[in-house]
Design goal:
- By secondary structure, the chain is an alpha/beta fold.
- It folds into two domains: 8-196 and 372-419, Periplasmic binding protein-like II (D-Maltodextrin-Binding Protein, domain 2, 3-Layer(aba) Sandwich), CATH 3.40.190.10; 199-370 and 433-492, Periplasmic binding protein-like II (D-Maltodextrin-Binding Protein, domain 2, 3-Layer(aba) Sandwich), CATH 3.40.190.10.
- The chain is 40% helix and 12% strand.
- A five-stranded mixed beta sheet has the order 10-7-11-6-12. A four-stranded mixed beta sheet has the order 4-3-5-14, sandwiched between helices. It has a two-stranded antiparallel ribbon with strand order 1-2.
- Helix 1 packs antiparallel against helix 14 (387-403), helix 7 packs parallel to helix 16 and helix 9 (257-263) packs across helix 17 (453-463).
- The radius of gyration is 22 Å and the shape is globular.
- Mean pLDDT is 87; it is low at 1-41.
Length: 496
């Protein structure tokens, strides 16, 4: 899968925009499912409780005069260290302001251009024995897996002050990213991209009107738990098959197979009784059935606008990309993520938001996969000397992020400015309450332009062609198994 570029509009209430490009891209015995923090609007009463909690944290340890150095992707920092009227930048500034005022610290930010740069600087600093950085932030794919494999970040499952049961930490992270009870990543609103990484289905409202599709029926299906692959296909069948690629209307655009796999209730990473991750070398019947099901329409170019590797969109669809097909009212359904939602809201297209469909109605819950290129986490370098200080500040940052960053990114930008109707607010709640991650990001050899060979085989088979799925999967699963062994050994050899 080719590298996708996220154009995220970081707009104020007065529509001031900043373009963010080059998308980046939790002990327990390990489980295969989980949900994130709740997605309810941050009410004043909750904000007051957060204030009380943070002020109580400040009484636990004398932090006055200490310096806290935070390194990571520039999206995690305000554009200016003052109130500018830009809603997203201001939320990060307010978090920084409160930390310095309440804890009496000096804030030392190190904003960088991306995960690879963060990864390189942290590895170089820690391997040289330096302790310049207290907390690092970067994409799991472009930064986190390298930091873990290099042995430069410390375990976080036994931190004294970080309260994993609080709403500002993703509740499933200990189940999803622990290896034999050891955890190295922390997820939540402490990283703004937590609101940009989750897969959704968008439908073009101009086309639902044109083809006599009732928007309310789509929302009712989602809210009643009846939004399934069958229902997706039934609705899409109102659009005739495409006979001319340069001017036809497609039922679907940008098929992304792996999120469909998770949406169908399946998992890639499994865990044994000791909490060690593994993948099945033998292709499961369920996975094969899902592949057949999805390719039947996602791989049909009379229904789906898709690009295989190295294809030229300008030749295939005229001057249009997959994204602009949706923007130009030439695709009914667009498989996107919530970062795309914030960007598309600024364009001349009106759309509705739906969760990824269940495989069938017998499936109990929706499952919304978090894009590994966008998903970010925070990490504590091993050379941190005053771990209690960093532990405390990380918890305080998490709490204040729930107050300010969640309010800005989710409550105000996504749930208010980025949608066209109240029904999409309700479906967005479903999406974030069913959000999941998978550890495959740590062993699939992926980077910011590929799923990696293991996931590439699955992605290809679920998106447009499953003719070689069984052989590709078995071959690449063996490589993934080797990578998992290395991951487990790295964690087993780590004593702190």
């Amino acid at each position: 899968m080719k590298k996708r570029i996220i154009s995220m509009i970081l707009a104020a209430l007065m529509v001031t925009a900043i373009l963010v490009s080059c998308r980046e891209g939790g002990g327990g015995g390990g489980k295969e499912t989980g949900t994130t923090d709740t997605a309810a609007v941050t009410e004043p009463a909750e904000q007051s409780e957060i204030d009380e909690y943070v002020n109580e944290l400040a009484t636990r340890y004398d932090t006055a005069g200490k310096t806290f150095t935070y390194i990571g992707h520039q999206v995690n920092f305000p554009t200016e260290e003052k109130d500018t009227g830009e809603i997203l930048s201001d939320s990060l500034y307010y978090r920084q302001r409160d930390l310095t005022e309440i804890f009496g610290i000096d804030w030392d930010p190190v904003p960088l251009d991306g995960g690879p740069t963060t990864k390189d600087q942290v590895i170089n600093e820690v391997t040289a024995g330096g302790n310049d950085y207290d907390l690092a932030c970067g994409g799991m794919l472009t930064c986190g897996q390298a930091l873990l494999n290099a042995g430069v970040i410390r375990q976080v499952q036994d931190l004294e002050h970080v309260d994993f049961d609080r709403e500002w930490w993703v509740q499933s992270m200990r189940d999803t990213f622990s290896v034999k009870g050891k955890l190295y990543f922390l997820f939540g609103p402490i990283v703004p991209y937590t609101y940009l990484d989750t897969h959704v289905v968008l439908f073009n409202k101009s086309l639902t009107g044109m083809f006599s599709i009732n928007d309310s029926d789509l929302y009712d299906a989602a809210l009643s738990g009846k939004w399934t692959v069958d229902e997706l296909e039934r609705v899409a069948s109102a659009v005739p098959a495409v006979t001319n690629a340069t001017n036809g209307v497609y039922r679907y655009v940008h098929p992304v197979g792996v999120p469909f796999l998770f949406a169908a209730g399946q998992t890639i990473t499994k865990f044994d009784e000791e909490g060690a991750p593994y993948v099945d070398e033998t292709l499961s019947i369920e996975l094969s059935d899902i592949s057949d099901r999805l390719v039947s329409f996602q791989g049909d170019e009379t229904q789906t606008a898709l690009l295989k590797k190295d294809e030229d969109a300008s030749k295939k669809y005229g001057v249009e990309t997959l994204e602009t097909l949706f923007l130009n009212n030439r695709a009914l359904f667009y498989f996107a993520d919530t970062g795309d939602v914030m960007y598309l809201r600024q364009q001349a297209v009106e759309f509705g938001i739906l969760p990824m469909p269940k495989l069938n109605e017998a499936q109990s819950d929706y499952r919304s996969y978090s894009n590994p290129w966008v998903g970010q986490a925070v990490y504590i370098p091993k050379t941190v000397k005053d771990i209690e200080f960093v532990d405390l500040m990380t918890e305080a940052m998490g709490a204040l992020s729930q107050k300010y960053v969640k309010d800005a990114y989710y409550d105000r930008m996504l749930r208010t400015q980025a949608i066209f109707d109240l029904e999409s607010q309700e479906t967005l709640e479903i999406v974030f309450q069913s959000k999941i991650y998978d550890m495959s990001v740590l062993y699939s050899d992926g980077n910011d332009s590929s799923w990696g060979p293991f996931l590439d085989a699955i992605e290809k088979a679920l998106s447009y062609d499953n003719s070689t799925f069984t052989s590709d999967y078995k071959s690449n699963a063996r490589v993934a198994k080797i990578n998992i062994k290395f991951l487990i050994k790295t964690v087993e050899d780590d004593n702190g």
